[in-house]
Amino acid sequence: MSPILTPEDRALELLVDHATEGLDPIAAGELDDLIERLGDFDAEAFELAAAAVDLAHTVSDEPLPDRLRERLSEQATAFFAGEEA
Amino acid sequence: MLGARPRSYPVSGVPARTVYTAHRLEFDFEIEVQEDILPRLGSGETDAAEELMDRYGGLVWSLARRHTRSPSDAEDAVQEIFLALWKNAARFDSSKASEPAFVTMVARRRLIDLHRYRERRPQTDGPETDLDTLTDLKATQAEIRAEAQLAARALAQLKPKEREVVLLSTFHGMSHSEIANHASLPLGTVKTFIRRGLMLVRETLEKPRSPAARKVTT
Fold first, then answer.
1. pLDDT of residue B209
2. Are A23 and B109 in contact, with CB atoms under 8 Å apart?
3. Does residue B176 contact residue A20 with C-beta atoms inside 8 Å?
4. Which residues contact B13 (CB under 8 A, 6 or more apart)?
5. Of chain B residues 5-44, which have a CB less than 8 A from chain A?
6. Do B202 and A45 touch, CB atoms closer than 8 A?
7. Cα separation, B188 vs B194, whole angstroms
8. Of B173, B194, B182, nearest in space to B66 by CA
9. In terms of pTM, does the model score above 0.80?
10. Most buried residue, B9, B66, B70, B186, by most Cβ within 10 Å?
11. What DSSP letter does each residue of A10-77 carry, written as one string?
12. What does the alpha-carbon distance between residue A56 and residue A45 come to, in Å, rounded to a whole number?
């Protein structure tokens, strides 16, 4: 039998899941409702922590492939010219 | 126009490059922090888009390669990640996170949304947790390396099993259930380890920021 969680604990549980493996639409909706109810809640804290851990172990010494870089430049030009919705 | 880029972008009253001293965290290294790019992009300085790719292209590419199955998937992911960064540039707040951490967060969010993160075949070799290797990180930019070192040292405070679980989840992309099977731990324990580990990392990274920045609004 699962323990009954407080809204705060449930929100933290969902935030950890969101930061590490994603949420299905139902859980995402539950989290949105909890955050709205709980008010001043650090909604991105776990995502930023997971990002920092990922960053700590990521070797980023390989540059973007030239072809991809050129494509991104074209997309950036279009985006900032207002051609991308 | 995205092609022409000045070499530096002086901001009124703010030096282009500053030195961030991490002594407040009781660490014994100094970090040279580059001027953030996202605020300029968010305020309409579109030339900054090229600079963003220069600084973070390698990082985003590395994340995408690791969290997707093929180079083709990685290329698609990188394009979605940069689009998300362009759209969300104005949301970046340096009082809440460093720019490398924010970029990585946006990248991870997109990778998870693409449903490739969990589907990726987990790596079978164990995550690297040795401190000696953590201090020899090869990230190319000083600020990326600095943020990585802070997170690595926060991780080093965890018990070995807790650290392993956090790395299997965040770096190797394993689901909580997969970790439970892999590490022969109850699912609830896995979730507790991840939550505790991430909270410790976050608390460590928040120390240099103002107390008012501890709450994030979305």
1. 53
2. no
3. yes
4. none
5. none
6. yes
7. 10
8. B173
9. no
10. B66
11. HHHHHHHHHHHT---HHHHHHHHHHHHHH-S--TTHHHHHHHHHHHHT----SPPPHHHHHHHHHHHH
12. 17
Chain B residue with minimal CA distance to A71?
A: B79
Please tell me what DSSP assigns to residue B93: -
Name the residue among B209, B202, B145, B163 with its Cα closest to residue A44: B202
Q: Which residue type sits at A80?
A: F
* Count of Cβ atoms closer than 10 Å to residue B34 Cβ: 16
- Alpha helices (H) along chain B: 38-42, 48-67, 71-88, 99-113, 131-134, 142-155, 160-170, 176-183, 187-206
* Chain B stretch 81-140, residues whose beta carbon is closer than 8 A to a beta carbon of chain A: 82-83, 86, 96-97, 100-102, 104-105, 107-109, 112-113, 115, 117-118, 127-128, 134, 137-140
Token pair of B213 as six digits: 């920045």
- Is the per-residue pLDDT at A59 higher than 80? no
Amino acid B126 reads G
- CA distances to A48, B19, B126, B131, B142 from B139, rounded to whole Å, are 18, 18, 20, 16, 8
Instruction: Give the ipTM.
Output: 0.88
Sign of the alpha-carbon dihedral angle for A7, A13, A17, A18? positive
Nearest-angstrom CA–CA distance, B47 and A72? 13
Two structure tokens written together for B124 = 């079978």
d(CA B154, CA B135): 13
Q: What is the C-alpha separation between B151 and B126, in angstroms, rounded?
A: 19
pLDDT at B145: 73
Q: Average per-residue pLDDT in chain A? A: 87
| Shortest CA distance from A12: residue in chain B | B195
pLDDT at A69 over 60: yes
To which residue do tokens 């951490």 refer?
B101
Residue pointed to by tokens 């072809």: A67
